[in-house]
Design brief:
single chain; alpha+beta; Elongation Factor Tu (Ef-tu), domain 3; OB fold (Dihydrolipoamide Acetyltransferase, E2P); 4 domains; 4 helices
Length: 385
Amino acid sequence: MKRWAKIALPILILGLSVVGAIAMFAARPEPQFNAPEPPSLLVQVETISAQPITYEVRSQGTVSPRTQTTMVAEASGQIVEVSPSFVSGGFFSKGDVLIRIDPRNYASAVKRASAEVAKAATQLQTETALAGYAAEDFERLRRLNPDQGPATELALRKPQLRQAMAELQSAEAALEKAQGDLDRTVIRAPYDGLVREKLADVGQYVNSGSQLGVTFAVDIAEVRLPVTQHDLQYLDIGKLRLNSPIEVELTAELGDTNFNWRGEVRRSEGVFDTTNRVLYLVAQIEDPYDLDGDGQAPLLMGTFVSARIVGRYAGELMLVPRHSLQRGNTLWMLDEEQRIYPREVEVVRRDKDFVYIQSGVEGGELYVVTPIDQPLPGMKVRLES
């Protein structure tokens, strides 16, 4: 009996434990499952608004002088004087004496030519007097002999008179040439300008045709601006044929500062470059070195500048950042529940920074500025404060 009690008691305890566990499992509360909300992206939005747009075309180029001269000697001799302004980077004014060449040989030639002129003038006076005497003698002869025929030109000394006149003209021409050669020993500045390169100095012997230096005028600078065939449609090139300039703004970074200059596109080169298929427009900037003292920064020759050329008036368009339209012409709009949905828009132009929209959206609507990697229609977003 005791033996069966020892066997039944553990079985009873085990059974009661199983029953209790089953009861506790049956009495447990049902778990609450809450579906997590999908994460929302943080985006920036802006309001669509129409505004009057005038197209701009971007380009770039290097500043160069409109007028550049390689100065050469027109007389031979030793350089005896050089102006202090005739150095690389030196400014000069129109008419300034830049270089003098030894004039002694040319001054002697002027004296000899002057003597020949005086000699020829004396000879002409002598022949004029002799021609007058010959005419008087022939008149006396006709009074004595009425049957005398007309006098010949040789009898009246007309050939000798013409020869004397020709010799005087030749002597005067030689004097004029000698004086011109003497004047050419002095090299004067043909315009207000700056010396780019100095090639001769005091004591140097130069021949006619020797290069003395390179100079350029500082009244007007030019920039060749390449424009693609696609961008030409945004410019009113027809104005140039009517001598009406196109405004352009030039920008250059000097150190940590950006400087701006106003200019005008005055002409085009008229043909497309066959190597890169661009048309070069030529912009002009007056007084690039600010010699008039207007207060603008000097625009040095050789400066690389960026240009913004004013184009045609495009009317009322909507302007959005270019990165807002990553795929085709789809712009993502925002509704009242802060959900996004796509909208196809009509794009009339894309440039480096902006997209120009003509239709497809209305003013006052909100669009997403922030690029979204994989947007889905109806996706909820959060807005940047």
